[in-house]
Amino acid sequence: MKIVPGVLDCHHIRLRYSGPSLFIDLHVLVDGNQTLKQAHDLTEAIETAIGQIAPRADVTVHPEPG
Predict the structure, then answer these.
(1) Counting CB atoms within 10 angstroms of each CB, which of 16, 39, 40, 58 has the fewest?
(2) Cβ-contact 37, 24 below 8 angstroms
(3) Burial per residue of 19-46, b for 16 or more beta-carbon CB atoms within 10 angstroms, e otherwise
(4) Closest to 43 in 3D by CA, of 60, 25, 31, 58
(5) Cα–Cα distance for residue pair 32/18, rounded to 1 Å
(6) Contact indicator for 36, 57 with CB cutoff of 8 Å
(7) Is the pTM of this model over 0.90?
(8) Are 32 and 65 in contact (CB under 8 A)?
(9) Which stretches does DSSP call E strand in the chain?
(10) CA pair distance 40, 59, nearest whole angstrom
(11) Paired strand residues for 30
């Protein structure tokens, strides 16, 4: 398992198939004092890490202040 620095916790993780497509949704707790750009960059890093495990998945990451 790859750890992404900056993620304090995660919850509401959902994985589901619709036909042959895998959809992954998750909520992550992040530092509430970071900028919107920093939070966006972190969600991109999380999506990249998940993409290494599930390359064709449609991933949605919901950042929340921790």
Answers:
(1) 16
(2) no
(3) eeeeebebebebeeeeeeeebeebbebb
(4) 60
(5) 34
(6) no
(7) no
(8) yes
(9) 9-18, 21-30, 58-65
(10) 14
(11) 65
